[in-house]
Amino acid sequence: MNDAVAVVLAAGLGTRMKSDLPKVLVQVLGRPMIEYVLDALEAVGITKTIVVVGYRADDVKQTLADRRGLQFALQAERLGTGHAVKMAQPLLVGHKGPVVVLAGDSPMIQAVSLRKLLEHFERQRPACLLGTLHKANPFGLGRIVRDGKGEFAGIVEEKDATDEQRRITEVNMSTYIFSGPDLLYALDHLKNENRQKEYYLTDCPGILRAEGKLVQALPVLQPCEALSINNMDELSEVEAEMRRMGYH
């Protein structure tokens, strides 16, 4: 996948982590959590990654100074995930291949899952492919809504979901592959018409689908990839799972 580029979102604070570090620098088994994300991208052969930095940007850059193939984009104001990817837009102009978009605070991302997504993307060439999973207790996560044919129809957030939609177990895990030109198109058409006045990356698949472009969701992520780190308890849970899986 030498023509794939990655965008890793790493601008956030770690306030709920009882730390004044940027969240992606909080240590998991003795390493900053973003290192695991970058390792997974390297393992699938991605040699160019754009890291979107914000809070204490210089600390993130310094921590990652020894890694090859990284470029940095600055998100000076945090106006949502879509806005974060927009900050990488100048570095993506002219890129025709796939763009993998991941959260820098998802250290459980598995190279095997990324490889499956990239292989599917190569075969199908959708405008956007979402990596999803089925979770027994999906509370709080965006649900993947499918139409009568089983095709991707949209993402519904927990707060907007009907009772029926809340029963959906397939969830969005902020793991995307876009075709380069289609991502730029979607970013150009993102709006911030919501209470937070933020630009959401989750709106991009819908923008592309409304244009009649192929958007797919593939539930290939593993249960461990559903583990997120938003507080110290979740950090402990992830570290325990990593030890069980043989991480060092």
Care to describe what's here?
This protein is α/β, with parallel strands linked by helices and 248 residues long. It contains 8 helices and 11 strands. The chain has helices at residues 33-43, 57-63, 81-92, 111-124, 163-166, 180-188, 203-210, 232-245; strands spanning 5-10, 27-28, 31-32, 48-53, 70-74, 98-103, 128-134, 143-146, 152-156, 170-179, 215-218. The strands form 3 sheets. The chain has a 7-stranded mixed sheet with strand order 5-4-1-6-10-7-11, with helices on both faces. A two-stranded antiparallel ribbon has the order 2-3. A two-stranded antiparallel ribbon has the order 8-9. The longest helix is centred in the middle third of the chain and has 14 residues, at 111-124. The model has no long low-confidence stretch (mean pLDDT 94).
Q: Spatial order of the strands in the main sheet? A: 5-4-1-6-10-7-11
Global morphology? globular
Overall average pLDDT: 94
Number of E strands = 11
Through-space gap between termini: 27 Å
Kindly list the characteristics that best describe this protein.
7-stranded mixed sheet, 248 residues, alpha/beta, single chain
Can you describe this structure in just a few lines?
The chain has 8 helices and 11 strands. It is an alpha/beta fold.
